[in-house]
């Protein structure tokens, strides 16, 4: 008779974080795949990159987010994928912070482009709080990746 291995609270947290962050990255990436022009406009609005670089980034960000989410979902290179995600989140937070400091009224572009947000602008504090929460969860995955059901942890 074999008993099922019980899952500790930390293992449960690790599983929820891994699969939750996989969903976040997959959803964010999918929403950007067919919106290159809108994403280019959202990136340009931050005033950091030239129009040409904004176009390149709009083309790359969605597929890269999708790929990162799939890596987390499948359990491929969990720590490495999470480390890259953490760097990306910090870069996003820097971009959002500089836009807030400059008083820009723009759409975040975080989960695709929402034309309704352009006139009102994003809620900077909530957007940064959300991204900081994602960063903490991502750091948890680096520290304690959930390896069960992972193809190559």
From TrEMBL:
Chief localisation class: membrane
Signal peptide from the UniProt entry: none
Membrane topology summary: Multi-pass membrane protein
Location relative to the cell: Membrane
Domain Methylamine utilisation protein MauE, first and last residues per copy: 13-143
Transmembrane annotation, as ranges: 12-30, 56-76, 83-101, 121-143
Pfam families: MauE
Keywords: Membrane, Transmembrane, Transmembrane helix
Database matches in PANTHER family: INNER MEMBRANE PROTEIN YPHA-RELATED, OXIDOREDUCTASE CATD-RELATED
Protein name: DoxX family membrane protein
Native species: Corynebacterium intestinale
